[in-house]
Specification:
Blueprint: E1 36-37, H1 51-54, H2 60-70, E2 83-84, E3 86-90, E4 99-104, E5 106-108, E6 123-132, E7 137-144, H3 148-153, E8 154-155, E9 160-161, E10 191-195, E11 198-202, E12 209-211, E13 218-221, H4 241-256, E14 262-264, E15 269-271, E16 276-283, E17 292-299, E18 305-313, E19 323-324, E20 328-332, E21 336-338, H5 340-347, E22 357-359, E23 366-372, H6 375-378, E24 388-390, E25 395-406, E26 412-421, E27 434-435, E28 440-441, E29 448-449, E30 458-466, E31 472-479, E32 487-491, E33 503-508, E34 523-528, E35 534-538, E36 544-545, E37 549-552, E38 560-568, E39 573-579, E40 590-595, E41 607-612
Antiparallel strand pairs: 1-29, 2-7, 3-40, 4-6, 4-41, 5-6, 6-7, 8-9, 10-11, 11-12, 12-13, 14-16, 15-16, 16-17, 17-18, 19-20, 20-23, 21-22, 23-24, 25-26, 26-30, 27-28, 30-31, 32-33, 33-34, 34-35, 36-38, 37-38, 38-39, 39-40
């Protein structure tokens, strides 16, 4: 195993950002004071100070500045053989199931020629924690996904990097700008899945990469929808203006920018009741048109395609996550629009390609599309093209679960558990606080202060009541809890996916640091949907967490364990934490903490997957 030193992203902060008034209204329209960014002073240091020195800093804003940077330190090292992790707290329980926790996310943010990239454009770095239930030990591996972009940008002989692909969110300094058509940089860094004997790393907008599960070697791209779709229509046979526009865009996007005709979404769903994998894709040209075409695919446990459906929605949408029930696919309309000035700058290489788009908060409500999953079984039903209008405006971030319940009269109610935010907070060009103009990270952009009506991520429960014919009777949105702290990455026991559940878990903020009140997260929250009770477990000062994962071990919904990675930036270490979900809120919730070797300390991960041994 070769170990290389960490590469740190020097960071400075811009002046506090002023954002427009928040329009996240729940449940009624109210006037909200404009939020403002938490003020964190700029550091003049080009090298990070010792984390131990920051423990004694008189001003926490200085520590907050560097703690955020430590969370996004590049890791160039990989493992060639599994490493047994040391248990530093507690013990691995005797009944912990055998299996592997896979976690993916970016691993590299800087190259050796002066360029930095947005975290969303960082090369995919797959981490694997394999549990041996007999020996009660955990082995760790971490490898980069050998994508086409990675092969072009990394020289294995010298172990150096030169970024050549712009990526949707970045602008290169050391690479070609004008005329650089390498925009769709598939870095396979967003989510991970093991299904049908295949381990896949997914990205928002391209084919997933298949990984060998034992060695984490990259096998290659896997077109899971190959043969599922008819050849793309040139648009010549259609008379609509947007069909004509699509026909003009396709040869440019497909030929010049090398975009795939169908963009597979990184979020998938597993229907535990039917043992099916559900995926979704959208057309590449729809990113630039005021319409959206979505295809949904369902696969059996052997990856055999069982069914496919297409839906054309007359609105300009950006979908990251979605929901399903036993009768519907559900899309929350995250509305966007084309930014002409931004488009010109993006094409010229002056700004990121994402600047061609902006959010569109022109509607005070949130359209929700209920798409029939099994049209032949629906009988008489409402027109799915007419969306349900949720009474408040919000941007959907992630879905925890969705399910349907019927009453004695045959009416049904759909409930969706999700994390949302305001349109004003969701700024394409400021996600994770990345400033593409100077290549730096600014945590104040993720910690705006909106007073009582906080625009950051929050957990909500959406209720949609339908009559026997599928007509809408009522739609409402309620906060899942009364906590004002930010929360995201809602998860449940995966065995209850698509079915009614009682418990939901999420990453949250304790709000204990005034300079980092909302993000990064430092708390696991457990919500009981029946009693409306909330319990939390916090990781401690100057330590953060990512997305929790539920590991089932029995038939009861809360019978299992929670896994979450602790990013101890105060000592620049990563720990795998095992929690007892039943004891969240109690002193003994921590079951075990396992330490990742310091030379393999890794940056913040995005999404994970628990794969139990058969």
């Amino acid at each position: 195993m070769l170990a290389k030193p960490h590469h740190f992203i020097p960071t400075c902060f811009s002046s506090p950002t002023k954002l427009p008034a928040v329009v996240h209204r729940m449940p009624s329209q109210v006037k909200i004071a404009p939020p403002h960014a938490i003020s964190i002073p700029t550091s003049n240091k080009t090298h990070a100070p010792s984390p131990s020195i920051l423990d004694h800093a008189a001003d926490d804003s200085v520590a907050a500045y560097w703690d955020y940077q430590f969370l996004f330190v590049s890791q160039r090292s990989e493992t060639t053989k599994p490493i047994t992790l040391c248990v530093v707290d507690g013990a691995i329980p005797h009944d912990f199931p055998s299996g592997t926790y896979y976690l993916t996310g970016p691993g590299l943010f800087t190259d050796d020629h002066g360029s930095t990239v947005h975290p969303l454009d960082g090369h995919g770095y797959l981490r694997a924690f394999t549990f041996d239930g007999v020996c009660r030990e955990v082995k760790f591996m971490a490898r980069y996904v050998r994508t086409q972009a990675q092969a072009e940008e990394h020289d294995p002989a010298t172990d150096t990097w030169r970024f050549t692909h712009r990526g949707p969110f970045s602008v290169l300094k050391g690479g070609r700008k004008v005329g650089n058509t390498k925009v769709m940089k598939n870095v396979a860094n967003t989510s991970v899945l093991r299904w049908g004997g295949r381990l896949l790393c997914l990205w928002e907008g391209g084919e997933p990469y298949e990984i060998e599960s034992e060695t984490l070697d990259t096998i290659g791209r896997l077109d899971v929808i190959d043969g599922c779709d008819s050849p793309p229509d040139s648009g010549k046979n259609s008379g609509g203006i947007w069909d004509v526009a699509a026909g003009l865009l396709k040869p440019i996007l497909y030929g010049v920018f090398k975009m795939p005709p169908k963009r597979l979404l990184s979020h998938y769903k597993v229907d535990a009741r039917m043992n099916r994998l559900l995926t979704a894709s959208c057309n590449a040209e729809d990113m630039l048109l005021p319409r959206s075409s979505f295809s949904f695919y369902e696969f059996d446990s052997n990856f055999k395609l069982l069914m496919k459906q297409e839906f054309n929605i007359p609105d300009h949408l950006m979908i990251h996550d979605w929901a399903f029930t036993e009768t519907h696919y559900i899309l929350f309309a995250n509305r966007i629009k084309l930014d002409l000035a931004g488009s010109m700058a993006a094409v010229c290489g002056i700004s990121p390609m994402i600047s061609a788009l902006s959010v569109n908060p022109s509607k005070p409500t949130t359209p929700i599309y209920l798409l029939p999953r099994f049209p032949d079984k629906c009988g008489r039903s409402r027109d799915w093209r007419v969306p349900v209008e949720a009474p408040s405006q919000f941007w959907l971030l992630h879905v925890g679960n969705a399910f349907e319940v019927k009453d004695v009269n045959g009416d049904s109610e759909i409930q969706i558990l999700a994390a949302t935010c305001s349109y004003q907070w969701f700024n394409f060009q400021k996600l994770f606080g990345y400033n593409w103009q100077n290549g730096k990270l600014d945590p104040s952009a993720m910690n705006v202060d909106g007073g009582e009506n906080e625009p950051m991520a929050r957990l909500v429960q959406v209720f949609i009541q339908l009559d026997t014919n599928g007509n809408i009777k009522r739609c409402s949105v309620e906060p899942l809890n009364q906590r004002k702290d930010s929360s995201d990455f809602p998860v449940i026991n995966p065995a209850f996916s698509g079915s009614r559940n009682k418990y939901i878990y999420a990453a949250s903020s304790s709000g204990s640091r005034t300079t980092l009140p909302h993000f990064p997260f430092d708390t696991v929250v457990r919500l009981n949907l029946c009693s409306k009770s909330t319990h939390t477990w916090s990781v401690g000062n100057r330590r953060f967490i990512g997305e929790p994962i539920f590991v089932p071990k029995g038939d009861e919904e809360d019978d299992g364990y929670l896994l979450v990675v602790e990013y101890a930036v105060s000592v620049q270490r990563c720990y795998l934490v095992i929690l007892d979900p039943k004891r969240i809120g109690e002193d003994n919730a921590l079951v075990a903490r396992l330490e990742v070797p310091k030379h393999l300390n890794f940056p913040l991960g995005f999404h994970g997957f628990w794969a139990a041994d058969n």
